[in-house]
TrEMBL record:
Origin superkingdom: Bacteria
Domain HTH lysR-type: 9-66
Protein name: LysR family transcriptional regulator
Organism (species): Xylophilus rhododendri
InterPro entries per record: LysR_HTH_N, LysR_subst-bd, WH-like_DNA-bd_sf, WH_DNA-bd_sf
SUPFAM superfamilies cross-referenced by the UniProt entry: Periplasmic binding protein-like II, Winged helix' DNA-binding domain
Pfam families reported in the protein's UniProt record: HTH_1 (PF00126), LysR_substrate (PF03466)
Biological process (GO), any one: regulation of DNA-templated transcription initiation
Record's keyword annotation contains tRNA processing: no
């Protein structure tokens, strides 16, 4: 009587068992695996010892499954299939990034960046789940610093350099108003012309508000702020009514809905130029999924905002 030992279920034993079933001959299996037949016989004997009995009966027609072998075969094949599926999933996982990527961005970027980015991401990397939150430039930088987001797209001013931020493009500022507004009747409007005009601006300490106030002091312009709104959508909605003006970046102007007729003029003398940047959190190394999303962001920006806008 065979003595059953504690089975280790080595996958190579299961594979050998399945191969012998398929070939019906130890000689053919030995040739298939490139091993001497005695070595194959010894491996089969060890596996049979683990199973507690003979798996094959030797007949004039070759090897046939014993009752024990017939009971074990379906489950052994299931284990081998599952192992193959696991290997395929691991290889697929290594080839295709997956997981969650948290992205912080300005509300004004929703149309020009977020929509095409989402389309590209679903097409190229369906295993990546994008979790988005919008806020002011200050909020996005705070989220990056704390690790609340993996990536952030925001506006910066001046020549501040940081290894955590990558320049995407330069962005210019426009004055926006109703289709019949006087200050936007020409393609360009001098900054000094804004003096006394009713303006809807973000509240302090917004970086946009601080910059405008610095420029106003430098050029002796009095800003007439009649309303404050941190949402660019609210600013543009109020400006379109013709009672006041708002100041928007080029990408915001491009994203103004067609059902909201507005007229825009580039602010000059001086031009108000900002930098659209891609930031990465310093709180942890970037995952592969985060790196791929960053690459897609650059691709979308290059396509839709290839130069200063």
């Amino acid at each position: 009587m065979s003595t059953k030992t504690d089975p280790h279920w080595d996958l190579s034993h299961l594979q050998l068992f399945a191969q012998i079933v398929a070939e019906g001959s130890l000689t053919r299996v030995a040739a298939l695996v490139g091993s001497p037949q005695p070595a194959v016989s010894r491996r089969l004997a060890r596996f049979e010892a683990e199973c507690g009995g003979k798996l094959f009966l030797r007949t004039g027609r070759g090897l046939q499954l014993s009752d024990l072998g017939q009971r074990i075969l379906p489950r052994a094949q299931a284990v081998l299939r599952e192992a193959e599926n696991l290997s395929r999933d691991i290889v697929s996982g290594a080839a295709e990034p997956a997981g969650e990527v948290r992205l912080g961005l300005l509300p004004s970027l929703c149309d020009v960046l977020l929509v095409p980015l989402f389309d590209e991401l679903r097409l190229r990397f369906p295993g990546v789940v994008l979790r988005m939150q919008e806020g002011s430039a200050g909020h996005v930088e705070q989220w990056l610093s704390s690790g609340a987001v993996d990536l952030g797209v925001t506006l910066r001013y001046g020549s501040r350099k940081s290894s955590e931020f990558e320049l995407l493009c330069d962005v210019e500022a426009y004055l926006t108003g109703a289709p019949d507004s006087l200050l936007t009747r020409n393609p360009q409007v001098p900054f000094k012309a804004l003096g006394g005009a009713p303006l809807i601006l973000p509240s302090a300490p917004s970086s946009t508000r601080l910059l405008l106030e610095q420029l106003a002091r430098k050029h002796e312009v009095v800003l007439n702020v009649v309303a404050e709104a941190d949402s660019t959508q609210i600013q543009q909605a109020l400006a379109s009514c013709g009672k006041a003006y708002a100041i928007a970046s080029g990408h915001s102007v491009a994203g103004i809905p067609a059902n909201r007729p507005m007229r825009t003029s580039l602010i000059v003398e001086p031009q108000i130029q900002r930098q659209l940047v891609l930031g990465r959190t310093p709180a942890r190394p970037a995952s592969r999924a985060a790196r791929e999303v960053g690459s897609l962001i650059r691709r979308v920006i290059d396509k839709h905002m290839p130069r200063a806008v």
